[in-house]
Amino acid sequence: MQPGAQLRAAARFVSPLSFFCRRALLAAMAAAIGCFFLADESAGAAELGSREVRSKLSEEVERLVRVAHEKRLAERSMWWRLLHYRSGVFGVASEVDAGHFFNSPDGKTEPEAELDATLRGFFSPGPSDDRIQHPFCRFPARLAWLNAELRFDFRVLPRQPCARFEEFRQRVDPESISLIFSSYFLNNPASAFGHTLLRLNKKRAPGGEERQALLDHGINFGANVDTGNAVLYALKGLAGMFAGEFTNVPYYFKVREYNDFESRDLWEFELTLSPREVDMAVAHIWELGSALFAYYYLSENCSYQMLGILEVASPRIDLMAKLGWPVLPIDTLRAVAENPGLIRAVTYRPSTRVQFRRRLSALDGAEAELVFRLGEDPDLPLPASASAERQMAMLDTALDLIAFRHGKELLEPKSAPSARAQRLQSRRARLGLISPTLVIPTPELENPLRGHERARLDLGEGYSTRSGFYHALDLRLALHDWSDPSAGYPETLSISFLPIRLRHYIERQRLELEQASLIAITSLVPMDVFDQSISWHAHLGAARIHDDGCDECFAGLVEAGGGIAGGLFNDGVLAYLDFNTALAGLGPIEGGLFGWPLRLGVGPKAGLRLRPLPELVSTLRGDLQYLPAQTPTFTWAASATLRWMYRHDFALSLEAQAFPSGEFLQAASTLYF
Amino acid sequence: MRTLQVRWSVLICGLLLASSGFAQDEESKEGETAEEAAEPAAEGEAEADGEAKVSDDELVKGMKTNTGRGYGPAGCGLGSLIFEPNSGFTQIFAATTNGTFGSQTFGISSGTSNCADTSGGSDSAKAFVETNRTALAKDIARGQGETIESLSRLGGCANAHAVGASLQRNFDKVFPSAAMSDGEVGNSVVDALRSDATLACQSLI
Questions:
Q1: pLDDT confidence band for A189 (50 / 70 / 90)
Q2: Which residues pair with A457 in a beta bridge?
């Protein structure tokens, strides 16, 4: 029996039994099973149908339960996928935490009890509150799979009409499914590592050449965030204290939100799922609609749950086993890509920022200058010498300029940028020409699948002018920093999660922690006349201090600051200058503030990155700190790196560091994994 | 050397375990409380009133945290769903979008919301215009674009090129002022499509 076909049949089915008969049957079932469900009291004994039917039904259900036990269905991986069971240190448990997701009160931890209760639930009278769906309709994917395994005899077993599920199915009506990756966005911690969602691609109208993807449905998993407090947000997100829920949003919401509002690129990976697999995915999405998950920012997050749906769609797909910790959107995308042939096509949907840059690149210097001024003054007269086509090009570019610079204000109709945008649009419309479609080729090198793996291990040897030779081990759990090869990542992205640096000094026979951080971010936005967003950095962790105030001591460190950045040659050359504030403490610091072991420094922090080839990157960084009323009064640090990725995920690295109390030189072999 | 490697790996594993273990512990705790919270909803009739009340509260709360303006009757516009502009620090650090869309509007099984409907007809066309307002205005100014193609499909119009050209000609009628509400823009765009008989937007009749 084909699950997909069965599913459709089940959903379309209209009960052949008369209303009277069905009522009787339901009441009989309730009496027979008589444990979980309330009997429909109005169905009096007088209305009961034949005893034969009643006992036949309950016999059949119990037979199915026995066969399910014999076939050990509750141990099958498909059942585990359907119920999101995981076995862990504390035994088996489903990741679903609440909602109408289980039929058995022990369903969360007992796969077999849940399977038995599911079978009985399918053919029970169902809940008396008609706002709560009958299990037969609430779990269409389970129904399809169990039917394929057990071959339900619907001559004996009752079906239910599932109007709500059927309406949902018709509403989304997909012929294929895409996994959508929304690029990294450092200005929002929830999106710093990117985001993924599924898109249910509607059947395309035959012969229609227009683009229709905006009208597809996006299936998103997100946390119901209930706090605006940053610290609480971080803690609750890490600890799974937000409830996570699936939503069904028209894809155009997501495009506006990511492409326009946050100016992030979207990458769309269309999957090669068969119609039957697509049906199964839709059925499981419906099941998940009534589930509540705890949302874990680092593990059971948006991306993880998307994979759960795909695993139910098809037994041939293996995804979860490929995941480590933390689970980042890029990991889930890679897990999909590791299933050969699962990705059919890749589409790139550029952000407004990229659209603007593309239009700008078709203008000459004088025209670009006029675009800038149009952004400020939409009524600016254009030179009479400019042809209508050139005027169109300038006005079109200026429209995008306002859109990406004022993404937020444009949501407010009464804002000044909204008024400017409207005047400029009106002017452009009066010009009357139809603009050619903006073509932006897919930047293949930026495809997130082209990037290095997120964890990085450096093993090498080093020399310190003070302590002699040492063995070095550097480990970073995620994701990408400035010194890494740039394919697959934005040039400006630098986010390190849990970087740890260890050194074993050979002569002194000592193992020392050089650095251990929770997170370090440098967010760069190259500045020009059009884009004057500030760049910023933040760092929370601990590091060794190399100056007189605290020679070689290890202390906690918080750093943050902002400044400006610039880029040349498509950001192949990048530089930044930030004003930095650093607070060090929790270590044996001498000469600190007021004699406490606390050190506060302020000063410039600067960096330069040269990337002649995508595989070859060098960086120079330095910072100088003034330590008011402390000794020493000044401290500084400088470093240089050179990294060459000679084979995908294998690199050679050189690093030099200088501090007031000594220099380090280190060569290492780098593995991304 | 060997003992050293062992020590290193123990240390690293320890750090990783410490951080993941933290999450694991919380997981089990949270699971229990979340389940308890959901229990009443599963009870059915007896709890029906309570359940309805909870969702009302949540709806109200959702409106406040998301917008301060509320949505639903006010329309489906993007601005009504994403937090208030200019709330500064909160806006940067609070949740944005990965989770703020209230499930009352976009729940998988809540199905009936016009804001989530892309099946065609004037309601879904208006909802589309409200959310895509900014991008659509740009496309109309240019006389073509993806949002015009989508709108044309929702309206059942014969030809997206003709829709683009017609809306471009009528830009000032469709968007007389930037200060219009999303709902007003939705109406004016749909009216413009209806009033041009040559566009033959069959789903808007």
A1: low
A2: A475, A671
pLDDT of residue A432: 95
- Mean pLDDT over residues A428-432, rounded? 96
**Can you say whether the dihedral through the CA atoms of A153, A157, A163, A164 is positive or negative?**
negative
The pair phi, psi for residue A369, each rounded to 5°, is: -60, -45
- Ordered DSSP codes for A351-374: -HHHHHHHHHTTS-HHHHHHHHHH
pLDDT band per the 50, 70, 90 thresholds, residue A363: very high
Mutation choice for B interface testing from A86, A211, A352, A500 by most B CBs within 10 A: A211
Q: Does B95 touch chain A (CB under 8 A)?
A: yes
- Whether residue B23 and residue A98 make contact (CB cut-off 8 A), yes or no, is no
Q: Tens of pLDDT along A543-576? A: 999 998 888 899 999 999 999 999 999 889 999 9
Burial (CB count <10 Å: 0-12, 13-18, 19+), residue B90 = middle
For residue A248, the Cα-to-chain-centroid distance in whole angstroms is 16
Q: The complex's ipTM? A: 0.85
Residues of A in contact with B34 (CB under 8 A): 97-98, 243, 292, 294
- Sheet order of strands, A242-250 included: A96-99, A291-295, A242-250, A217-223, A195-202, A174-182, A266-271, A343-349
> Alpha-carbon distance A117 to A136, whole Å?
12
Q: For the packed helices A329-337 and A302-313, what is the interaxial angle rounded to 10 degrees?
A: 20
Smallest CA-to-CA distance from A532 within A563, A561, A560 is with A563
The answer to whether the beta carbons of residues A165 and A148 sit under 8 Å apart is no
Q: Burial letters for A183-211: b for 16+ Cβ neighbours within 10 Å, e otherwise?
A: bbbbbbbbbbbbbbbbbbbbeeeeeeebb
Higher pLDDT pick, B115 / A217: A217
A256 to chain B, any CB pair closer than 8 A? The answer is yes
* Number of C-beta neighbours around residue A444 at 10 A: 10
pLDDT in tens, B149-192: 999 999 999 999 999 999 999 999 999 999 998 889 999 999 99
Whole-number Å distance between alpha carbons of A581 and A561: 6
CA dihedral A226, A230, A233, A237 (to 10 degrees): 150
